[in-house]
Design brief:
339 residues, alpha/beta, Rossmann fold, five-stranded parallel β-sheet, 12 helices, globular, binds N-carbamoyl-L-aspartate
Length: 339
């Protein structure tokens, strides 16, 4: 695909080469994200960061990514403070904000909202999560993380075995990640969820049609066996009719040190898109794994900045320019990114 000026709405718009290109550009962003070098390539450019649903990582990392390329960020962080509460349509919002921005990131609770918004927008739109539908930048950063973590274990994405656990029905991160995996080879996906929260059947059948092995189970101990990566998810409470209904499933599948030791391999990579639900009744990923070397969740979140910088660089066509204006960082940067 041609990234220049493109909207990023769904992982289905990518070919494998496009994904590899994003990863290559992301690798080149490391010195900037790690505060070794500074670039002003996007000096004067404005990101409209429009978040109509709760977010910490996605909102802040998109903003940081744009800042790290030298651009400025304008942000709407909730529905209440925006004109949407006065009855304004997404069409009008898109027309207006696209006059103020060079690129827009949109998060919105309605599936398909990002595509509708993009139709009305005069500038590229990145889907930062549209309801239970998709979260393409998260899938890219998840796969980028998987690639790096597996590489350290002498493994590749092709041929890997991944277990996805939790609310696979409503989790947009697992929807996008599974669809992205379709373009790789011979993957075994073990989908561990309550019966009622299974992965949408069209995603499962597309994976099978692409030659992958898909196992669906509600037995976590069994499902974790011989997995190279385990990807946990939160029960997506906000997608249920009531909190009471979500309570039925909370805490049903948990990973902690004892379960990991018993059912995972010594080098199984532990992932989670975050936020993990740390309330006692949920706790799907126990803090007793916080010091575990295979816990990749914070490396995963760090990688989000690299991937989002790469997307901005590709969409705004500065991949051959951002290094030109670069210089060394002039302030104390500490050792926060050392291995
Ligand atoms: C996820 C989301 O918003 O879909 N978070 C994120 O973007 N990292 C996952 C979640 O909220 O459970």
């Amino acid at each position: 695909m041609d990234f220049c000026g493109a909207h990023i709405l769904s992982v289905n718009q990518f070919q494998r080469d496009d994904v590899e290109l994003v990863f290559e550009v992301a690798d080149r962003m490391e010195p900037y994200a790690h505060r070794l070098r500074v670039t002003k390539a996007l000096d004067g450019a404005i990101l409209g960061n429009m978040f109509f649903e709760p977010s910490t990582r996605t909102r802040v990392s998109f903003g940081c990514a744009f800042n790290l390329l030298g651009g400025h960020v304008r942000e709407t962080a909730d529905m209440e403070s925006s004109s949407i509460t006065k009855g304004e349509s997404l069409y009008d919002t898109a027309r207006v904000i696209s006059g103020y921005s060079d690129v827009i990131v949109l998060r919105h609770p309605a599936p398909g909202s990002a595509a509708g918004f993009a139709k009305a927008s005069r500038v590229p739109v990145i889907n930062g999560g549209d309801g239970a539908n998709e979260h393409p930048s998260q899938a890219l950063l998840d796969l980028y993380t998987i690639k790096k973590e597996l590489h350290a274990n002498g493994l590749k994405i092709d041929g890997m075995r991944i277990a996805m656990v939790g609310d696979l029905k409503h989790g947009r991160t697992v929807h996008s990640l599974s669809q992205l995996l379709r373009m790789y080879q011979k993957i075994r996906l073990t989908l561990i969820s309550p019966q009622e929260l299974r992965m949408p059947s069209h995603i499962v059948s597309d994976l099978k049609a692409a030659g992958h092995e898909v196992i669906e189970t509600d037995d976590m101990a069994d499902g974790l066996q011989e997995s190279d990566t385990v990807y946990l998810t939160r029960i997506q409470e906000e997608r249920f009719d009531s909190k009471l209904e979500a309570d039925i499933y909370r805490g049903r599948f948990r990973l902690n040190q004892a379960i990991y030791t018993r059912h995972c391999q010594p080098n199984t990579v532990i992932m989670h898109p975050l936020p993990r639900d740390s309330r006692a009744e949920a706790n799907e990923l126990d803090p007793d794994l916080n010091q575990h070397p295979n816990l990749a969740i914070f490396r995963q979140a760090d990688n989000g900045v690299l991937i989002r910088m790469a997307l901005f660089a590709l969409i705004l066509d500065i991949t051959d320019k951002f290094e030109e204006s670069a210089k060394e960082t002039s302030w104390y940067t500490g050792g926060r990114f050392s291995p």
